[in-house]
Amino acid sequence: MKFVQIMQEDKVIVACQEKERIIPIDQLAIKAFDQVKTLKDWIILQDKQPEMTLILKEAVTNYRGKYLASDEVTYAPVIHNPEKIICVGLNYRSHIIETKRKEEEFPEFFAKTTNSLNAHNQTVYFPKSVQKLDYEAELVIIVGKTAYEVSQAEANEYIWGYTIGNDFSARDLQKRRTQWYLGKGLDGFAPIGPYAVRKEDFNLQNAEICLKRNDLVVQKANVNQLIFKPDYLISHLSQYLTLKPGDIIFTGTPEGVILGQDSPDWLTDNEILTVTIEGIGSLTNQVKVKHQ
């Protein structure tokens, strides 16, 4: 079972996807679910009442009512209201090598804000002044409960699950100065989804991640190659700031970005990017020049 967020009557609602069926949680007629409007609501409820996970699974399995199909819904970001969007740079050795950087003792962190969130099958618009547009396929952590000064040994308890992200980057803006905000934080530059899976349903030790540019695979790795693993990232961050339910952490991208090419072939108008992570699904976006 996977989780999605979809648009209904201009509102974001959370739903479960089982095979081809998308079932909004509010259709399951279980009183305890009345307060669950978004995936973040579900994460908070599940933390307080773990038995709700089994109740939800049984309700979805036994559901015989109306359901939606993936080709008839508009997806929203699978988490649309995080308090924090934290990103990790240089977290695969192959990517460090291709960008001619050196491996550091601590992770490289930067942040995006909610204006950069975007969704599956939605367009990523970029300003016509941006000439060096790049992609970055990433596994994204979804925080499950409030974490502060958490040890690495217990950090996994604070992870709710995972989704897919594409960290679009305007390299010309990113490289102007030492701070990355402008190059990373443009409108729509952080699509996530369409699916989120609980950590128990994802094989972190062996899951392929790849990115197709149009019909060509340009990034391919395994998430077990991450230098700083999710438990380390949760523990390390929580020594300095409080992580909240629904916060998301982009964990870094593998080799194959355009920035690493000897003769960069930057993204252009109308190209299609698809990030696939084994055990989660695929996230697809088209890029277009933004016209007023």
TrEMBL record:
<dbReference type="GO" id="GO:0046872">
    <property type="term" value="F:metal ion binding"/>
</dbReference>
<protein>
    <recommendedName>
        <fullName>Fumarylacetoacetase-like C-terminal domain-containing protein</fullName>
    </recommendedName>
</protein>
<feature type="domain" description="Fumarylacetoacetase-like C-terminal">
    <location>
        <begin position="84"/>
        <end position="287"/>
    </location>
</feature>
<dbReference type="InterPro" id="IPR011234">
    <property type="entry name" value="Fumarylacetoacetase-like_C"/>
</dbReference>
<keyword id="KW-0479">Metal-binding</keyword>
<dbReference type="Pfam" id="PF01557">
    <property type="entry name" value="FAA_hydrolase"/>
</dbReference>
<dbReference type="GO" id="GO:0019752">
    <property type="term" value="P:carboxylic acid metabolic process"/>
</dbReference>
<comment type="similarity">
    <text>Belongs to the FAH family.</text>
</comment>
<dbReference type="GO" id="GO:0016853">
    <property type="term" value="F:isomerase activity"/>
</dbReference>
<dbReference type="InterPro" id="IPR036663">
    <property type="entry name" value="Fumarylacetoacetase_C_sf"/>
</dbReference>
<dbReference type="InterPro" id="IPR051121">
    <property type="entry name" value="FAH"/>
</dbReference>
